[in-house]
């Protein structure tokens, strides 16, 4: 099997969520695995001097409208969360903890479940107790999860993951790297598809 | 005929150029006219607090790569201009002057020609004399054009056009407004197409 697709996302990114609903099907079409990398846009935006889209004058209203319209266009279930944006450290750490204890498959299952909880069910995934409930519903063994989310090793691991992502040039969500080629945004999935198909673009 | 499509663009915007190569064909498919609105991203970015994509840390290199890749993907001729970005006041004013003197069709012909000159032929369209040459090649009567570009009425008109665009919510290039619906970016032309087809999205 060819190299895995590195998929970077922040849990408060609607376009990251849209991408998460499509990435595995796209990867499977070309016999690729997906490595799920939850990151934090906060430190990334500090480096790039960016502001979250929805907080930029004029762009904010458009962005919320575009989230809903893009969801309809791509037939993705979506409900605007009441709390938005939210801190996503706990969610990212939960996924890293599950990955370290139970492997990548369980971790990606949890990631997808967290995204659905936030962008469909309106659950505030910034609260660690909600994350434990979400993990339980995804049939994940949550013994130690609540402590794990707050443990120093997992905190340090997330920091290192974000640093590594930035070192690889990741500056937004979703962000895909495969075979040395980078794609920013769900709206580049058409080009990603062509690249996976042809091996060039 | 249904209402025209308002098409906003800055002449130094590669995505604006890509959109300019597609907008008329798309409009014709749904029996619409296009109103070409050259604007300036400078004052817009002052309002939104934005920085040109290519000047943002980390995003710059990606952006230049994405321009070339997107051009190949959409089979649009494109060569990275040596001078980039450039001031586009003169180009925008040239189009406004031609529109006021010779009508909208001549103005849109000139706009397309200016984009090609910059993004295919590598001509520095920031220089008024180059604009006169480009207009001549487009079979436009250029008597008075050089003076027109620097005339107060045309300068004021461009300011007013930019203010009006911002008042309508335009914050980037390309930006399309039709039947009250706004679309930012060449990568929303798939949704624009669906909206024109179905009257909703």
TrEMBL record, chains A, B:
The keyword Isomerase applies. It is an enzyme of class 5 (isomerase). It holds the Pfam family DSBA. It catalyses: 2-hydroxychromene-2-carboxylate = (3E)-4-(2-hydroxyphenyl)-2-oxobut-3-enoate. The keyword Isomerase applies. One of its GO terms (molecular function) is isomerase activity. It comes from the Bacteria. Its EC number is 5.99.1.4. Keywords: Isomerase. Residues 5-196 form the DSBA-like thioredoxin domain. InterPro entries: DSBA-like_thioredoxin_dom (IPR001853), GST_Kappa/NadH (IPR051924), HCCAis_GSTk (IPR014440), NahD-like (IPR044087), Thioredoxin-like_sf (IPR036249). Belongs to the GST superfamily. NadH family. This is 2-hydroxychromene-2-carboxylate isomerase. It comes from Paraherbaspirillum soli.
């Amino acid at each position: 099997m060819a190299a895995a697709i590195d998929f970077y996302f922040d849990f408060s990114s609607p376009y990251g969520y849209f991408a998460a609903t499509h990435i595995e099907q796209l990867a499977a079409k070309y016999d690729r695995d997906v490595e799920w990398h939850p990151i934090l846009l906060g430190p990334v935006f500090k480096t790039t001097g960016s502001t979250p889209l929805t907080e930029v004058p004029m762009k904010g209203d458009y962005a919320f409208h575009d989230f809903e319209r893009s969801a309809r266009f791509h037939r993705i279930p979506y409900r605007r969360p009441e709390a938005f944006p939210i801190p996503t450290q706990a969610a990212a750490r939960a996924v890293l903890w599950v990955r370290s204890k139970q492997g990548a498959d369980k971790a990606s299952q949890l990631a997808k479940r967290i995204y659905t909880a936030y962008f469909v069910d309106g659950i505030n995934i910034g609260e660690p107790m909600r994350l434990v409930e979400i993990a339980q519903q995804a049939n994940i063994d949550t013994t130690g999860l609540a402590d794990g989310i707050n443990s120093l090793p997992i905190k340090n691991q997330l920091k290192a993951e974000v640093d590594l992502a930035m070192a690889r040039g990741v500056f937004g969500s979703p962000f895909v790297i495969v075979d040395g080629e980078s794609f920013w945004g769900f709206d580049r999935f058409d080009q990603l598809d062509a690249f996976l198909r042809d091996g060039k673009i």
